[in-house]
Amino acid sequence: MSAPHEPFAGSDTTSGARDREPQPDLRTWARDLALGARFAVSGREGWTRTALTAVGVAMGVALLLLAAAAPAMLHTRDRKETDRTPSVTATLQHPTPGSLLVADANTEYHGRDITGVLLRPEGPAPERPPGVEQLPGPGRMVVSPALRKLLAASPLLRERIPYRITGTIEPAGLLGPAELYFYAGDSRLTAGDADNGGNADRATGFGRGSSPEVLGPVFDLLLVMVLVVLLLPVAIFVGTAVRLGGERRDRRLAALRLVGADIRTTRRIAAGEALLGALLGLALGSLFFLVGRHLAPHVTIRDISAYPSDLRPGTGLAVLIAVAVPAASVAVTLLSLRGTVVEPLGVVRQGVGRPRRLWWRLLLPAVGLALLAPLFGKAQGTGHINQYQVAAGAVLMLFGVTAVLPWIVEAVVGRLRGGPVAWQLATRRLQLSSNAAARMVSGVTVAVAGAIALQMLFQSVNGEFVTSTGADVSRAQVHVSTRITDGAQTAADVRRLKATRGAAEVFGYTQSEATQGGASKLKDTADAAYLPVVVGDCATLRQLARITRCTPTSTFVVPPPGDFGDDLARYARPGMRIDLNPPEGSGYTGTPRLWTVPAGTPTVAGRTDPAGDKEWGIFAAPQALDAARLRAPNAQIMVALAPKQPDAIEYVRNTAAGFGIGTYVYELSNTHAKSQYTQLRRGLFAGATLTMALIGASLLVTMLEQLRERRKLLAVLVAFGTKRSALAWSVLWQTAVPVVLGLLLAVGGGTALGAALLAMVGHPFRTDWPEVGLLSLVGAGVVFAVTLVSLPPLWRMMRPDGLRTE
Prior knowledge:
The chain has 806 residues and is of the alpha+beta class. It folds into 3 domains: 40-74 and 215-466 and 675-803, no CATH class; 86-206, no CATH class; 478-669, no CATH class. 50% of the residues lie in helices and 13% in strands. Strands 12, 13, 14, 15, 16, 17, 18, 19 and 20 form a 9-stranded mixed β-sheet that branches. Helix 3 (43-84) packs antiparallel against helix 9 (315-337), helix 6 packs antiparallel against helix 13 and helix 12 (421-432) crosses helix 13. The longest helix is centred in the first third of the chain and has 42 residues, at 43-84. It is found in: Cell membrane. This is FtsX-like permease family protein.
């Protein structure tokens, strides 16, 4: 009889024999890889495992290709935005054959932004904006396809944009298929002259827009972290998908050892199986991406949409994905086999061997923190940060979370004892194979940890991109600004708004500027003083200043809130003459419009208006100063909406649209965010939506594969009298324990990474624990939702036919 530890046939007997083995050549590698590929597609079990692996990899590849296409899409959007921006010039004083008059006609409808441009050609050969075959004539417009549909379904909006549709803007002139955009011809557009400010700007064409604002290193840090947090879970799920069906693969390799295959051969065969699944996943993921790109025009996330032609992955990134995914699948497979001893007729795992080592797992986040430490305090002001160093440090810290997770799961579940049947089944399964449970929740753990760090960073730097407007939305919710000719027009506009459905309270005033009386004689108008002038009735003036006594002939001097008091004290004194025709540009134009500040004019303190502005200068009642004498006056009207009228603001916008060109309607808000920051937040939301969808789908695939591997075990337990409910609860507990441990680790790892990021921007440590709890609940909710979805297949796997075997 052989010794108890005598090796089976085909095993490696001594290390010396292994040392004498010749190194395999390329032909041997190709043969073993091909054999592994054949095993991957042999029989129903092989095809099922390969299909699940391919689907899991495909979802990750599709999202990676989408991320690779994002830079090209953003570049295309920026180019289109620049190409369609009117080239407004202040130096072109007279019309030319190619010049146009342009004015904004932007509006909003039910929270959706609508961009409009009014046009009037001044010559026979005006330049056309991109995507427009022919400029619309007066009273006509060309619209985007999305706006055409919205107008057809919204009579309220059609009333606001009354132009007749004569054409459609092509994709070359639109940022995306869901964009709401129009060009309209309007004969009312006029250019400014010496005595009239006009209502339009003169443009030489299109395509010379201004460069976007540079937001500095803090914004760059936010952008890098958004990419890391969104893409790292994708890479982890691709690696998890490759390891589906590992137990069946190990038993298959044990059978190969029986017929004489050595350990190196079995590893090459396993690599061939993984390689085929990865290649199929790569092809299927590319197909998913192409199909998704074709369907992109029908998908809009936070006002972001794209044309299929805009979603083109860069060649370098596409090649990197095509090479990295198969290579990573082989590397992950070989790495997973290092912890498994494959012998003939069985699989012997290191279940009673040495425990997992912790030191190298902690080394990953330590190295990541060491990379980030030199950048502490550097992401401030106009400083510069190494984006690759930031990305590498963040990736290592988040990878460290996944590396520590298996150790924590093994350490905790190894100490669990007793409890109900379902609990014992769950804990025993986790004790036997904690790897699978840790892998299943590793992606969620990284996603939550990254989200916590990103939330801490966003919350801390939010004040740099979002500013307080000072608006008092309890007094008014809408601000209407429009160009007028005299005070009577302001009063008429106020009356029309008061009669509008949904308007509760309305007040308005006329606003313009003045200068010192001798401004027309100055050689350099840069030395001219600019004094605001406000004309309104007494009730309105009391909304803008601390006025106790007021009559229709009253005037007031309101000091400025800042350091502009010198000009006001010098020229706005009682008895002083001021010019109501202030100079514009480099010289004085037109004729002086002199007016004398009445004697005895009191000085009163200003008051912040509902829009958050504090008007100052010369305040006058209508009989004290005729607003018709002002140069280019504007009417500023505040509207308080009726709270119980659903479309109150839309009715106000419709009324304001009838005031004429140069009318702007602003919905008052307590804060204002920079546009690029808002776009980043929208992109983060869109990417997070796709990533969470991938997490849920990948978890479902992983869980179904694990249940499929345990089908016979489940059927045996039911046959021995185990309650089905106990088995269902055991599956839930098998999910709950790793999820709780993973989320606790995610909170710690995410908070540590967030603290490092805050140190980089020079902000003190601060975190919103309720927000952290909410993010953790979202991650747990995704996992438990997937677990509930997997219960119906679990019931089917408990049937007696699960005892059948091949």
